[in-house]
Amino acid sequence: MIAIEFARTAWASATQVGGGLSYAPIAAPEPSGINTEGVVTFFASNIAPILLAVLGVIFIGRASRGEISKVLTSSAIAIVGLAFIAGAATLFFVGEYLIGLIFQ
């Protein structure tokens, strides 16, 4: 009986204290955009080397089994893919330069 009364009193005190705090104005942080430069840097410095290492292991494994034609084909596809990625990055920066030049 005493324990139940103690629990009720403690609960009432806890809800009164919490209720008072819930009405305090809290400043919401200003929304911020996504740090795209940080994301690109993260992928370029962490993800890309891992993927290239995996490709290298696959190529070495195939070459050791004598599948040279598959290794050359896969290597050519990987090089063309890297060229497309580099071209897209170049066009991104050239496009940004042209837009800045036109809308000065």
What would you say this structure looks like, in words?
This protein is an all-alpha fold and 104 residues long. The protein has a domain at 36-104. The chain is built from 3 helices and no strands. Helix 2 runs antiparallel to helix 3 (68-102). The radius of gyration is 30 Å and the shape is flat. The chain starts with a helix and ends with a helix. The mean pLDDT is 77.
In short:
The protein has about 100 residues and is mainly α. Helices cover about 80% and strands about 0% of the residues. It has a domain at about 35-104.
Topology:
Blueprint: H1 2-22, H2 36-64, H3 68-102
Helix pairs in contact: 2-3
Q: Could you state the order of secondary-structure elements as H and E?
A: HHH
Percent range for helical residues? Answer: over 70%
Question: Number of DSSP helices?
Answer: 3
What is the number of beta strands? 0
Round the Cα radius of gyration to an integer and report it.
Answer: 30 Å
Shape: flat
* Termini gap: 80 Å
Keywords:
mainly alpha; flat
